[in-house]
Design brief:
With 357 residues, the protein is mainly alpha-helical. The protein is 66% helix and 4% strand. The protein has one domain.
């Protein structure tokens, strides 16, 4: 088995990120368990994919994690889709998994047409945007032939982003560029998450504020970093397929789409680890992955997690555990700042140009 970018980076940094490794192992174990459950009960219909998101897809699973999932439909609507979703939900609960979180975003059916054809505009709801971006940045499909469904939908999404990038995609010469349409949607999702965090605090009267604050600053921010890295990599670290000579716009768009699709099959931590390797950013990597390792250690501790889940906004300001969590998030942010703004001149320039302005 090929060594992961995280393992390569860990060795290069002479570090030991044991909690990241344990979470990855736990995620694969839970994936195998769920995959076997679905296969044994034949719960996933044809033309659908059972897709998981969150920590299970990111491979940073801890014992308190939810199983966020959707039944992705890439075909005509059928009555058995709803019954299949009900059957999957019941089977997972009976197996001891918690109900999905997310205000109805997870735990039901999603149709590919909505994700691909409703990008932007009034019809693109928060729910639709969330499902689309998470499918691209943190998703995995489990069981049967559903992998082909997920790949088909991701391919169509990326084709839409690349082919509709009018004004930015080169019309001649076909040199690798930063896909603005894709990146703008990633940025929009990240900013929407930050705004919704404040809205949810009001709606829930502060319940769960501390744990959601920590996740926003760590795992949610990781999604944005992975999406930004994917977009910038087209220009700064293009794959071999993007450095070829193209004879048509169709060939070039196919190469751009293929480059992004390869990255969409990696976890956000893997993308970030490879980014650190590509720019020899070992100092930044120690801060980023060291803090993320401690973040997972905190979430894996049942008493610490429950404490943060029940901590009020008022009590958090004087709470020792929350102070420790904030310090973890601060170091994580400093590592990311160091990576993108103090490692490589071109990386800094492109981050400022495309990620900020």
């Amino acid at each position: 088995m090929k060594e992961s970018a995280i393992d390569t980076l860990q060795a290069a940094c002479s570090a030991s990120w044991t909690n990241i490794a344990a979470s990855r192992t736990g995620a694969h174990s839970e994936r195998d368990r769920i995959r076997s459950l679905l296969r044994a009960q034949r719960l996933v219909p044809s033309d659908t994919a059972f897709v998981v998101f969150g920590s299970l897809a990111r491979c940073d699973w801890t014992s308190g994690s939810d199983v966020d999932w959707t039944l992705l439909v890439d075909g005509e609507a059928r009555e058995d889709h709803l019954s299949a979703a009900h059957g999957i939900r019941s089977a997972l609960v009976e197996a001891g998994y918690k109900e999905p979180s997310g205000e109805g975003v997870f735990g039901g059916t999603v149709f590919s047409h909505e994700l691909v054809h409703r990008i932007g505009g009034e019809s693109d709801s928060n729910r639709n945007t969330t499902q689309r971006i998470l499918l691209l940045l943190e998703s995995a499909s489990l069981g049967g032939d559903d992998r082909d469904v997920r790949e088909r939908v991701i391919l169509q999404l990326l084709k839409r982003y690349v082919e509709d990038d009018y004004g930015y995609r080169p019309s001649a010469g076909w040199r690798p560029y930063v896909p603005r349409f894709f990146l703008n949607d990633v940025v929009r999702y990240w900013r929407t998450m930050a705004v919704d965090f404040a809205a949810k605090r009001r709606e829930r009267a502060g319940r769960g504020w501390a744990i959601r604050n920590l996740k926003l600053r760590m795992s949610r921010k990781l999604l944005f970093v992975a999406g930004l890295s994917m977009a910038l990599s087209c220009k700064l670290r293009p794959s071999t397929r993007l450095t070829e000579t193209f004879e048509s716009d169709e060939q070039f768009c196919s190469a751009m789409t293929g480059h992004l699709q390869e990255l969409a099959d990696k976890t956000p931590l893997e993308i970030l680890a490879q980014w650190c390797i590509d720019f020899s950013a070992h100092g930044a990597a120690v801060e980023i992955f060291g803090s993320y390792d401690r973040f997972l250690e905190l979430l894996a501790d049942e008493s610490s997690r429950k404490h943060l889940e029940t901590l009020s906004v008022e009590a958090a300001q004087a709470d020792d555990l929350f102070a420790r969590a904030r310090e973890i998030a601060r170091e994580y942010q400093e590592g990311l700042t160091r990576l993108f703004f103090a490692t490589d001149g071109k990386l800094t320039e492109h981050t400022q140009r495309y990620g900020v302005f």
